[in-house]
Each structure stands twice: as structure tokens, then as C-alpha cells.
Amino acid sequence: MDEAGIQRREELRMIKFTLALVMSVLALCCQAETLKKRYTFEYKGGSSRRASEARAQAGAQRKFLADFVAEKLSREIVNSLGEEIDVALDPPEDYLRNFEVKNTRVNPEETQITMTVEGDVDLPAMVSALVNNHVLSFGKRPPKVLFLPSSNIQDPKAAKTLRALVFNKLKQSGLQPVAFEGIVQVTSVQGKVTAEGTRVLAKKALEYNADYLVYIDTETDMKRASVGGFICDVNFIYTVMRPNNNVILGESVISERGSGSSTGIAFDKALDAAAPTLITQAVGQLYQSIFSDSDVLTDKQQLSNSYMLTVFFKDNPAQSQAIVDALRSNGATVNLAVGGAADRFNVETSMSAIDLYTFLNSRTLDAGGKFKTPVIDFSENH
Fold first, then answer.
1. Following DSSP, what letter does each residue of 40-102 receive, concatenated?
2. Report field, pTM of the whole predicted structure over 0.70
3. What are the backbone dihedrals phi and psi of residue 147, each rounded to the nearest 5 degrees, phi first?
4. Torsion angle of alpha carbons 333, 335, 340, 341, nearest 10°?
5. In the predicted model, what is the mean pLDDT of the chain?
């Protein structure tokens, strides 16, 4: 591979995907996507029939997952990093749920078998595997993630254990974990995921300049065992949030039981049993939230930032339209907000506030005459 090809390959590894669409509540609660496909394979009858059917089913699983990946990733990524993707998602059955062969048909010559299959793809697990195997990355300026345990987790050792596991996962993926020790400052808001509860969490995350928040709460039922000691049934409830707009990106419950001679030991054993699944699911949904909110993962940055743009001192309506056209030609989505003495527009763009400021200040546009678009003021709410 020549130098340009190598450089492009490395650029693909450093792709940064940003949030494009806010997923619906139904989509957020769904951990998998169901597909139905049909594939044809070579077939040998007679004594080799079972072996042929087994090979065909294994091949169907691999093609099924490959087709899903091809739909979610841009063609350039699939073509350039196909081998790396195949290795990261091997074996494919680890990323498939409820995979079923719905129908099989052998041609009259018994040389081909056609299988109709249906299954669910575990999207968070798939994205997590691609991140962990360095097929996807979060770019040179990765998002900051705050892990926040609930004050319900009264055992400092348990909170520290969870924090260490989450931090290790985040660092391995290239994200920036945000340190936070003051768990006593935050009360439990899980179980009643109200608007006020999300605001409490979002405020704490924004204090630490975090782009995303992973919050873990517990519901504990501790009782004495008939043979002595204690039995602890625990629901570990996690929530993944984007604090800048108070949007819940994912949530789920993992339940486990632990037993021991003391309440602390019983809880710790439940935590030990739940931790691998808890961390994998929570962090997997975090990856999914960052990477896959757009329809297709691509090597081009997606829409991510929203601004209100107010146009003052215009001489004619064509000037506002020229500004809108310039923004749209740069990939932004622009919609009219409120008219009147000044035109106001909702702008969605991949540009940061500083990038948008620079873009407008450097424009010279034409609307029946040349004019510039200097920015006279900008702030968090404008």
C-alpha cells in the first residue's frame, strides 16, 4: 500500500461520529434490530447432508451480520477495513439474538440450499466490539464521560469497584472518563425518571464538563438466609444520558443474587455477578449513543450542534436567504424560527460555535449587491 493509502487508512481509524438524530423512546429501549434475509449456499446430499446444512447455517449467520454492518457503516469504511471488521465480529453468533432458520429449500439437482433466516443484531455489542478492536474510534478529541453512582450504593468499596470497571472500559475505548468522588452529593433519581430527575443528573454532569453521563442506581432486597447469613437480591439500574439537552439515551436493569455471612459480602457477591453484564451493556449503549444515532455510520461528521441565528440590519429579504443558502451549502440544516424586526433561524450543523462564528465573519455574499455577515454577539443561548 502506498503512503497515501496508509494515511487514508489511519484517517479512517480516527473517524469521529457525532450525534445526528435524537432517537425515539421506543428505539432507545430496543437493544437489537430484527432482520429477515435469504441466502443460497452450495449443497451436498446423501451422507454429507447434515454437514452441508450446518455449513449453510454458519454461512447465513456470517452473511446476515455482514449485511447489517454494510447497512450501518459507509461503503468506504467497509471496503477499507473489511478484514478488521470481520475479525472484530468473529464469531458472528456473539452479536446475534434469536437467530432462526425459518425455511430451507434444496434445488432439484441437490446442488444448492436456500435458507430464509431471521434474527436480531445486538447493535450496542457490535459497536462495542468495533471500538475495542480499534476499527472505530472517537477521534482526536473524544467525548468526556462522567460515571455517577447513586447514593443508594452506600458501600464505598462497591462504588469504587464499579467506577474502576467503567473507567477501564472507557480508557480502553479512547473516551475521556471524568473523575468524580463526591457520591454523597447526589440522591437517587432512578425509578422515577422524571424531568426533574434528569435535570439533577444533567446539572452534575455539566459541572464536570461531561458530554455524556452513565448513572447507576440500585434496588436492594436483603434478607436472612434459613441456613444462616444473608441473601441479597439486587437490581442494578443504569441510565445513559446526554446532559446538554437532558436526553436519556439508554437504560436497563440487571438483576442478580448474592449470599454471604454478612450483608456487605452478600451485596459484593451480587455485584461481582452483575458487573460484567452491567458494564458491557451500559458502555455498549454509550457507544451506540455516540456512534449510531445517525442512519449510517460514515467517515464524514454528522449534524450535531444546534444554534439560534438572528439576522439584524438586513436591507432586503434576499440577504437573509443568501445567508441561509451559504449555511446549507456547507452542510447545515436551516429552518425559519421567528420573523419580525429580525429574521431568526434554527441552524443544525457539525460546526462548533467558534467554527460557525469564523464561517460567518469570513463571508462575502451577494444579494443584488455584495455584503458581509459579521457576528456582533454570540452566547450559549444564541
1. EEE---GGGHHHHHHHHHHHHHHHHHHHHHHHHB-HHHHHHSHHHHHHHT-SGGGGEEEEEEE
2. no
3. -95, 125
4. 0
5. 76
